[in-house]
Amino acid sequence: MSGLDKMKxxxxxxxxxxxxxxxxxxxxxxxxxxxxxRELAETEAAKILERAKREAADYxxxxxxxxxxxxxxxxxxxxxxxISGVLEKAYDAVMDLDDEKYFEMLxxxxxxxxxxxxxxxxxxxxxLKRMPAGFAEKIKSIAASKGGNLKVSEKPxxxxxxxxxxxxxxxxxxxxxxxxDSKREELSDQVNRxxxx
Length: 197
Fold this sequence. Notes:
Blueprint: H1 3-95, H2 99-113, E1 117-122, H3 125-130, H4 135-145, E2 148-152, E3 162-167, E4 170-175, H5 176-182, H6 184-196
Parallel strand pairs: 1-2
Antiparallel strand pairs: 1-3, 3-4
Helix pairs in contact: 1-6, 2-4
């Protein structure tokens, strides 16, 4: 081999060695870049997965809370329906009292609501028909004990039961329905305690 051939061979050998060096460095750099990107992607994926787990847990908690709230509302609605039913049955029972007990109850109601002064007491047509003998005198006696005077109106009023007290232009509604309505919250609480503890 001549000197020129040796020089060419050495230049080719050096070029190949440099090319291999550059290629090796490029491959190492590429592997490092790929590894760095892979680690970054894995880190991001882990963050996304963690965030998704938290959001899923939050959503599940909200769904549980919402379902619990709906269950409580349904139970409350059912309790209120039962309580209303009990109060209506109690109202019906009062309206179905025999005449003696019914008018005894009206006496007690009158004692609570009668005022001093001149007035009129009004009843339903049904109560005027079934009013016991001597009840008008009891009304006058109760009114007199409070310093007043009540006259029984012969004109029936449209009402369920109970009475209206009229003093001048002022009317006090003492119908059974009005008494129940005014005590509804208190009665509801009592029925709730009795039925549901």
